[in-house]
Amino acid sequence: MIVNSERTIALTCPACQGIQQHRFSLFSISQKSLQLTCDCGFSQGHLRRLNKHFELDVLSIEGDRARILLPRRQFFGMPLIHLLSPISGQGLGYLGDPASVEEIILTGPAELFLESNDFANPTVMRDILTTLEDLAARDKIRCECDHSSIGIDVYFDQVELVCAYCGSVVKIGASTRQHQERIARVDEIVMEPCTSLFLGEWLKPLT
Ligand SMILES: [Zn+2]
Ligand SMILES: [Zn+2]
């Protein structure tokens, strides 16, 4: 049996509120600690080997320090761990094999954000996230680069599909009825490698 040594830890960043993914190999972490720095420059904390455990020491979204000790066996064996702050019980992020983490990030937000008032138009946002979730579930969101690996970033009035491999981004407006109707007409989202586009621009050649 082949053990996949690649793992991803995805943490919500207290500075930019984005979900930052950090990919690493289990072998590298045995040797030196992994500094978890968000793309925005904020240092979220670190992950390191501590005897028979792995220690995760990070800042939660509220900026509280959370320290979690994960037994080695759990760390190696579980496909997906939902990381919770031992103090507040709030979700910090996910740890697991890259595909599982990717999937929960892509499909999770619809639930995670349902009760949030942080949106320009929560009804439209919810609808658009559900549509994207359906597309993802049917394998209809992908990037044309060599290692399509799509994550989703949710903002106040828009959603961004981001390819973790090549950095390609598709921005989708998510605040008006027009946005909602536009995405409802989409059958498939195929991202061009290494580009940043609005869904509207991207649709132009097709309509
Ligand atoms: Zn950040
Ligand atoms: Zn890509």
Give an account of the 3D structure.
- It is a single chain.
- By secondary structure, this protein is an alpha+beta fold.
- The protein has two domains: 6-97, no CATH class; 108-206, no CATH class.
- It contains seven helices and 14 strands.
- It has helices at 26-31, 72-77, 98-107, 109-112, 122-137, 177-184, 199-203, and strands at residues 6-12, 19-25, 34-37, 43-50, 53-59, 65-71, 80-84, 91-96, 141-143, 150-154, 158-163, 169-173, 189-191, 196-198.
- Strands 2-1-8-7 form a four-stranded antiparallel sheet. The chain has a four-stranded antiparallel sheet with strand order 3-4-5-6. It has a four-stranded mixed sheet with strand order 10-11-12-14.
- α5 (122-137) packs parallel to α6 (177-184).
- It is globular, with a radius of gyration of 18 Å.
- One zinc ion (ZN) binds at residues 13, 15-16, 18, 20, 38, 40, 42.
Rounded Rg = 18 Å
Task: Walk across the major sheet and give the strand order.
Answer: 2-1-8-7
User: How many domains make up the 3D coordinates?
Assistant: 2
SSE pattern: EEHEEEEHEEHHHEEEEHEEH
Quick recap of the structure?
This protein has 207 residues and is of the alpha+beta class.
